[in-house]
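Input (structure):
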């Protein structure tokens, strides 16, 4: 689940939406939370109970005795198939941690007497419980980054704690003014570009209510790779600033180390001449202040290289400009591929009507193989025609095959 900062949380308070029996098995049953199905002990939870849910691809700390039963799985939480049923995630009771359920509201109280409600930001327990990503690669690639303004503020805590300075920092012109006096050149080069929103689509399991929207959606194949961002912004006197970023890190040069053996992000920037492409877009569209292309870099050494290719390649999934936001996926694909020879994610359906259930949506995801390598595909990303809303549906079968 994404928090208000659009960062993925791995552990949080939920409410049990449903309980279903598993035919042929008397000791276990399936608990339903949104679109997630989790195998639990029979009678462990009732409909309406608050519980703590741990998402797939997470890892719990071995130092906490509450997680001792996960030692054989190396404390990792993955998509599993048990009792002929797919189970995604882990559900635990508040009492497993010595915490208490709040009777009058849906939530829990931890050992520090802090309240955690299932309907607001207090629900998130990732940091409190020390939960990380299961894969070391994800912990490095998805670790929260710090922009140049935060770095500046941390160097001068006394100054930046003052009320009038905090007022300045809530306004872009105020941030820029403070950076003029307190910023450092290295922060400017390595800081995350403030106009760029980081990429991490919400999962359908966390927002099944969106299925009620019966307007036509654009369905694109999800590529299993590393999120990559290229962006350029106009500066004074005709200058332009160019940035190359991973999911959270901004690279000021091709020599800056990244998680991989080589800087695959700059490699793609050079392969597809991104500096020239973005510069040309700004020249052709004088009304815009900045332009961003986002996509996935995939291939050798990235994730599981499920596409069996040598070297690396790139597919764009977002074209964003300051005047209109995220472009329609079909328009983006036509323009980038025709004008600049930049490959874009495959469009599976440009007018897809969402089904009524998550199960039906998963069936659609698995109905056809990947258009890239004709094997099982990772999933599908769905976007509205105006690009404002989007979500992903990842195939559990793909996760069982490549990420379990």
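Output (sequence):
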């Amino acid at each position: 689940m994404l928090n208000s900062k659009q960062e993925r949380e791995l552990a949080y308070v939920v409410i049990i939406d449903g309980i279903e029996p598993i035919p042929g098995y008397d000791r276990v049953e399936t608990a339903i939370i949104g679109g997630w199905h989790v195998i639990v002990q029979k009678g462990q939870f009732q409909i309406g109970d608050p519980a703590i849910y741990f998402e797939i691809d997470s890892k719990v700390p071995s130092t906490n005795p509450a997680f001792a039963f996960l030692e054989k799985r190396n404390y990792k939480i993955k998509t599993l198939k048990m009792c002929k049923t797919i189970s995604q995630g882990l559900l635990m009771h508040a009492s497993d941690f010595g915490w208490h359920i709040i009777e009058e509201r849906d939530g829990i109280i931890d050992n520090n007497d802090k309240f955690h409600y299932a309907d607001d930001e207090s629900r998130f327990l990732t940091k409190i419980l020390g939960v990380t990503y299961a894969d070391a690669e994800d912990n490095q690639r998805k670790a929260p980054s710090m922009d140049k303004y935060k770095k500046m503020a941390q160097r001068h805590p006394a100054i930046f704690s003052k009320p009038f300075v905090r007022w300045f920092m809530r306004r872009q012109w105020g941030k820029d003014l403070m950076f003029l006096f307190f910023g450092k050149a290295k922060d400017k080069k390595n800081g995350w570009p403030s106009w760029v929103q980081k990429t991490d689509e919400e999962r359908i399991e966390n927002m099944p209510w969106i299925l009620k929207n019966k307007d036509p959606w654009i369905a694109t194949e999800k590529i299993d790779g590393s999120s990559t961002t290229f962006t350029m912004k106009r500066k004074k006197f005709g200058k332009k600033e160019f940035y190359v970023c991973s999911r959270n890190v901004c690279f000021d040069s091709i020599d800056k180390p990244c998680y991989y053996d080589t800087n695959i992000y700059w490699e793609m920037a050079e392969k597809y001449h991104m500096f020239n492409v973005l510069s040309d877009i700004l020249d052709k569209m004088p009304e815009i202040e900045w332009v961003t292309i986002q996509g996935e870099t995939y291939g050798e050494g990235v994730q599981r290289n499920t596409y069996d290719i040598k070297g690396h390649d790139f597919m764009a999934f977002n074209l964003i400009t300051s005047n209109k936001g995220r472009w329609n996926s079909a328009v983006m694909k036509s323009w980038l591929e025709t004008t600049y020879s930049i490959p874009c994610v495959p469009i599976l359906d440009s007018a897809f009507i969402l089904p009524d259930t998550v199960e039906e949506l998963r069936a659609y995801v698995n109905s056809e193989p990947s258009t890239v390598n004709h094997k099982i595909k990772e999933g599908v990303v769905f976007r509205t025609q105006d690009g404002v809303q989007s979500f992903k549906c990842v195939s559990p079968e793909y996760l069982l095959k490549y990420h379990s």
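Notes: The chain has a mean pLDDT of 90. The first strand starts at residue 11 and ends at 15.
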